Amino acid sequence: xxxxxxxxxxxxxxxxxxxxxxxxxxxxxxxxxxxxxxxxxxxxxxxxxxxxxxxxxxxxxxxxxxxxxxxxxxxxxxxxxxxxxxxxxxxxxxxxxxxxxxxxxxxxxxxxxxxxxxxxxxxxxxxxxxxxxxxxxxxxxxxxxxxxxxxxxxxxxxxxxxxxxxxxxxxxxxxxxxxxxxxxxxxxxxxxxxxxxxxxxxxxxxxxxxxxxxxxxxxxxxxxxxxxxxxxxxxxxxxxxxxxxxxxxxxxxxxxxxxxxxxxxxxx
Length: 268
Hints:
Elements: H1 16-25, E1 27-30, H2 36-56, E2 60-61, E3 64-65, E4 67-70, E5 76-81, H3 89-95, H4 98-103, E6 112-113, E7 122-126, E8 137-140, H5 144-148, E9 156-162, E10 172-175, H6 184-189, E11 204-205, E12 213-217, E13 222-225, E14 236-244
Antiparallel strand pairs: 1-12, 2-3, 4-5, 5-7, 6-14, 7-14, 8-13, 9-12, 9-14, 10-11, 10-13
């Protein structure tokens, strides 16, 4: 499978070329979405939320478990934040960036940013150390969630805003281009969900520069590869925000924890 890896610039509309590339491959990569100084502001804001959550030992946000781990020096860190757009004004502002609205055109009319649904704006903080509990994630599709809930499989896209520059050895997102067009059988059984971490001969490594934005279709098979380097150079942070179609289902502090989310290691 020879898929050309083209990178684009996000303007005030999705071009025909961009739409065709996305339809064919199930993902798209835009360069230079946020500036270096903005990245530093984002990291500082996440550290403020982390400090607050550690102080009060925050367990869940709107029913979504908080994933804690250890940093390189052994100190406690949050490795997965959910609904960050509700926790700090900077993330609320980022979620309202008008360029994100442009991305809604990649799927059916009526799509929206999932700021109040699923897990809201997520920040994953990976670091490869002896004590880190969050270094990789096995093959999965995001569409499985709807099936877990007995819902119709609605289109769902995942926006990723990358805060670190990654080479293949740094690990990160690996996708199987074109698998968003697979049968329901292959969506369910092509690989062993989350248990299979093996590289696939047809996988494509997403290698962003800090500040880049990617979008991938939720039905696409993907995994998060472990960094083959350790220490500070293995650190990577990425923000995810879903684009959702279908019934509006906001989460609140009273929302229950879904059955599959009790297996904390399986949550993206």
